Amino acid sequence: MSANLLLLGKRIRHFRTQSGLTLDQLSETTGMTPSQLSLMETGKREPKLTALTALAEGLGVTVTDLLSAEAPDRRSELEIELGRITSSTLYTRLGLPSVRASKTLPTEALEVIVGLYREMERRERDAAATPEEARRANTQLQREMLEKGNYLPDIDQIAEDMIKAAGHETGALMHRTVADIAASLGFTLIYVDDLPHSARSVTDLKNGRIYLPPASIPGGHGLRAMALQAVAHRVLGHEQPVDYADFLRQRLEINYFAASCLMPRTRAVAFLQAAKKDRNIAIEDFRDAFGVTHEAAALRFTNLATHHLDLTTHFLRVNDDGGVFRGYANDGLPIPADINGAIEGQTVCRRWAARLAFNRTNRTTEFYQYTDTPSGTFFDSTQTGTSTSEEFSISVGVPFDDAKWFRGRDTANRQVSTCPNDTCCKNPADDLAARWAGKAWPSARMHAHVLSPLPTGTFPGVDDAEVYAFLDRHAQAGT
Question: Is 342 in the same domain as 409?
Fold first, then answer.
């Protein structure tokens, strides 16, 4: 039984009893049999539009009233929730008998059953959100995006339509336009300096406000992107995440939506196709044309390259210790991965451009390099950057044959990498090993995240108490 049909049935029954009508009386005014009406009220039959219109007229309400997504009363809300519970995988796994919301079941008992199950769900989510589970969920999401060529055309279309409706046609997307987009959805952007430390932004659904910091936070997350990400949850119809995988998927989709607004598909594709025609594709030009960060431009390029430029490609963000922070490849580049396929935290070869770019004295321009690997030769364009905690590099590359479309293809920089063979760059040189083996005892730098528990909660890592206190404080102040 569909939850939507059950809700519709509850609303029909609510308005019928509110009007003091029996099934027989409503049957006379609508032309439907009492048995048909009963099936509709129990959610076992979906009424056609003509039947809905007749029901609305017979009950003295509008069709919109009948189709509202709000339960007519607390009892109905609990009965609908009980239906969802007893059909869920978690409940089925318990092997318990099904519970019917009969008239003899007290509302207080329903409250207890639903409340206990919600607490079970919460504990199940917390238990599932182990680092291993999170890595598996993230790896699965990466595989799905690889199959799609890192491209989500439906979100692209939604973003393009919104940008056009806002009147934006050329140049970098302005803060004013972002505010207009938020306003069209019923939200006001408010910049405050007391955001909860665990949140990048906070949306007040009750009062239609999106709270943002007064300036860009470190890491390249500009205010425009943060505002668009907050708006995206509403535009894309997100509900509260049910598990960590859902949370990660929503995070990916809001980031994609923000990038699609800042670099609209039609204009971005036209820009990149023109650059390809001139054999002068450069991420730094793409970045500057749309006023975004280098990382945002690089990721957006991977969204569009395969479907619109006929290019397979790869992307890497690598920390200064050589560890992969984020990566994508559909061109065969052998990004290191663990036994489960997870790439985050894996160390890339010292001979790759993503590592060698840190050795340059002048880092104002992109670094170009060819790298011979067991999977073929790849061309890379790499730019370094700095966050509050470390340096990082952003690399975008393609197989050797496609380097002809890129600026920097005439570089003389070329390396040979045989990783994952340890003799490539992991083993020390024989003479150094002979001198120092057994004579060194370094103190390893411990990364805080190694022993940190995975953030839990409906929105992992967010302190609900802090967020609610923040919203209450601003709601009372009227800001």
Answer: yes
CA distance 360 to 369: 13
Task: Judge whether residue 1 has pLDDT over 70.
Answer: no
**pLDDT over 70 at 448, yes or no:** no
The residue segments making up the domain with residue 443 are 138-262+436-479
pTM of the model: 0.72
* Concatenated DSSP letters of 6-47: HHHHHHHHHHHHHTT--HHHHHHHHS--HHHHHHHHTTSSPP
Residues 308, 156: Cα–Cα separation, whole Å: 13
Q: How confident is the model at residue 461 (pLDDT cuts 50, 70, 90)?
A: low
Which of 68, 92, 126 lies at the terminal end of a domain, its last residue? 126
CA 273 – CA 305 distance, rounded (Å): 9
- Whether residues 204 and 346 fall in one domain: no
Measured CA distances, 258 to 107, 135, 231, 263, 286 (Å): 44, 24, 9, 8, 16
pLDDT at residue 220, rounded to an integer: 39
What is the domain count for the chain? 3
Neighbours of 28 (CB within 10 A): 12
Residues 190 and 228 reside in one and the same domain: yes
**Structure-derived torsion over alpha carbons of residues 225, 229, 230, 235, reported in degrees to the nearest 10:** 130
Average pLDDT, the chain: 87
Both tokens assigned to 52: 């809905």
Pair 410, 387 in one domain: yes
Q: In terms of domains, do 289 and 420 share one?
A: yes
3-state helix vs strand vs coil in the chain, percent to 5 = 50, 10, 40
Q: How far is residue 369 from each of residues 145, 271, 363, measured CA to CA in Å? A: 27, 24, 14
- If residue 4 lies in a helix (H) or strand (E), which one and from where to where? helix 3-18
Token pair listed for 219? 């890491």
Q: What is the pLDDT of residues 75-84, one digit of tens each?
A: 888 888 887 7
| DSSP assignment string, 272-323 | HHHHHHTT-B-HHHHHHHHT--HHHHHHHHHHHHHHHH----EEEEEETTSB
DSSP H or E run through 396: strand 391-399
CB-CB contact of 189 with 179 (8 Å):
yes
Dihedral sign for Cα atoms in the order 301, 302, 306, 310: positive
**How many other β-carbons are positioned within 10 Å of the β-carbon of residue 149?**
19
Contact 293, 222 (CB under 8 A): yes
pLDDT tens figures, 308-333? 999 999 999 999 989 999 999 999 99
Collect all residues with Cβ–Cβ distance below 8 Å to 38 and sequence separation of at least 6. 23
Q: What is the token pair recorded at 346?
A: 């894996």
CA distance 116 to 193: 39
Q: Could you tell me which residue, 261 or 362, shows the higher pLDDT?
A: 261
Query: What is the share, in percent, of the chain residues with pLDDT greater than 90?
Result: 46
